[in-house]
Amino acid sequence: MTDVSDPVPGLDEYLRQFEAYRNELDQIGFILTGSITKRFMRCGTVGCRCQTDPKALHGPYYEWTRKVRGKTVSVRLKKKEAEQLMKWIENKRRFYEIISKMEKITLEAVNLIRV
Ligand SMILES: [Zn+2]
């Protein structure tokens, strides 16, 4: 497949690389914005060991944090949920990494046809 009317030597190779990245994009599932944090916390109970012993802190607690219309929003998650969302956040990072590579190849193609 080519999307320029006149064949330009070398352009096919760029197109092959581009298609390879497109296939990689095809393998990516849900993409999610934000970050997952894991933390241990102190409670408010007087006399609880967590007040004095760092090893007795409660948790771990998992949170998904993101910006919604400029405001930071955090949602408490179960461990399994956190693990799933981490994968979707990683998917997004990978998705944009691939898009960026596709753009670079397209720029190479521009240089090739602008002679
Ligand atoms: Zn406590």
Describe it.
There is one protein chain. 44% of the residues lie in helices and 22% in strands. By secondary structure, the protein is α+β, with helices and mostly antiparallel strands. It has one domain (11-113). A hairpin with a 2-residue loop joins strand 2 and strand 3. The model has no long low-confidence stretch (mean pLDDT 93). The protein binds zinc ion. Zinc ion (ZN) binds next to loops.
- Total domain modules: 1
Major beta sheet summary: 3 strands, antiparallel
Strand portion, in percent?
15-25%
Shape, per Cα inertia axes: rod-shaped
Distance between the termini: 22 Å
- Count of DSSP H/I helices: 2
Low-confidence stretches: none
Order of helices and strands: HEEEH
Hetero groups in this structure are: zinc ion
Number of DSSP E strands: 3
Radius of gyration: 23 Å
The assigned structural class equals: alpha+beta
Helix content: 40-55%
Strand order of the largest sheet: 1-2-3
